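Run: sequence + pyridoxal-5'-phosphate -> complex structure.
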Amino acid sequence: MTPRTALTIAGSDSGGGAGIQADLRTFFAHGVHGLVALTAVTVQNSLGVQGFTEIPADVVTAQIKAVASDMGVNAAKTGMLATAEIIRSVAKTLDEVEVGPFVVDPVAASMTGDPLLREDALEAIRTELFPRATLITPNLDEVRLLTGVSVVDPASQRAAAEALLEFGSRWVLVKGGHMQGTTDCVDLLSDGREFISLSGPRYETENTHGGGDTLASAITASLAKGASVPDAVAAGKKFIERCVAEAYPLGAGVGPVSPFWVLPQLS
Ligand code: PLP
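>> structure
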């Protein structure tokens, strides 16, 4: 039987922990066929991103049109978009093709602090993509860059959600994973009417590379299968928790979160 499809519009991670590599294996783990519009090739390992080369914007949009016109896209997500030109071209293309629920992960920099967007491109994500998004999934650094709000407690997390919804997405997930001094990871999901607090355990690990990508693609996979946004986010949080719990060291720096637990035991 033909599975549901999900499209990732994102960059490649040579270390295989984040980017399209994380997205495709997360789609696979959910029984969803992954489609790709590659935006950039990064040169990176566990120690950081050494640089990236973007794909020409017309090639990015041609990939989207090729798969959408022939195979059909049941849900889509964005990761690393690299330049304002790519962002503007993707936004225009989304007005021309049908991609179903659309998740925007406003990736600005790696957790090692290396930029994944050219300057000013975050503004293009905010103005061009947020109004078209079903859900946006910023982490706390991205929340601060986008709104100026520093999230330190539940009240500021709610204020950040309200400020982000002003930019026009249907839903926002303010991820609390990077909040200091909390024993749980509390994420806040809102559409402006409902404010749903999702709490889960915090695991002690240095190895969280690809965590944001994996969560956003797990949510996208569930949306592709027809889940509501609250159900897809709740399931995505359970999925990423297990991936963080099973994260492994690889290289001298930050290792990846792991979806290997979905495989049946190999003997
Ligand atoms: N490389 C690529 C291609 C990415 O898309 C991302 C995040 O979206 C990263 C690196 C950074 O991942 P992390 O911040 O989890 O290290």
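>> summary
The chain is about 35% helix and 20% strand. The CA atoms of residues 198 and 207 lie 22 Å apart.
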